[in-house]
Amino acid sequence: MRTPKRPIYMITTWVKRQPPKVKAFLAVVAEKSCAGLSLKSQELTALFLAVRLYCSLVMEYDIHTVLDSATLATTLWVVYMIRYKLRSSYMEEKDNFTIYHVVIPCAVLALLVHPSTSHNFLNRVSWGFCVYLESVSVLPQLRVMQNTKIVEPFTAHYVFALGVARFLSCTHWVLQVLDTHGQLLVALGYGLWPSFVLIAEVVQTFILADFCYYYVKSVFGGQLVLRLPSKV
């Protein structure tokens, strides 16, 4: 019988997942500006958090449900600030990623590949959707930085924190699979779902790998403002 996770462990695990979202919150609060932040990326984040919160309510309902509620509230506040209070500093013309290009494929993929649990079909598809959408929710933010080429320090720190968090998450999954000799994949269910969960983690990591490289290079070079090469 597995030992129940202690509340402090669960809180610590949740906190490790939050730095990128907290960074966006701090950027808006401290800088009183949303320059360099992608509204569309924040909206995608709010969407997958809302779906994940729904799934948590109907499938788990534990301490993560409460904590994820706070995360969603924070993200919605950032969206509100960008849309209404800090609109003058929002780079709308640079934030030109079409979110339907990721939302629709994620929804279709979730219909085809989702958890094989005993929960009803809608809940299983919703869970798959939020996993897939989370893995690509940063794409609009990367598009903004690609369009501007010059990334302000706070935005660079935010995206780098996002990259580190997702790298650690991916590493955690890989180590768990190795440590359990593949039994974790069996615990996740049958079919393609276990493999797609791992693929989603890897995709999240590699999407941000290139930016993180230039970020580290810039920091060690003593540059306060990150300048991306034209090929990025």
UniProtKB/TrEMBL annotation:
It comes from the Eukaryota. InterPro entries: ER_ret_rcpt. It is found in: Endoplasmic reticulum membrane. GO terms for cellular component: endoplasmic reticulum membrane. It holds the Pfam family ER_lumen_recept. It is a multi-pass membrane protein. GO terms for molecular function: ER retention sequence binding. The keyword Transmembrane helix applies. This is ER lumen protein retaining receptor.
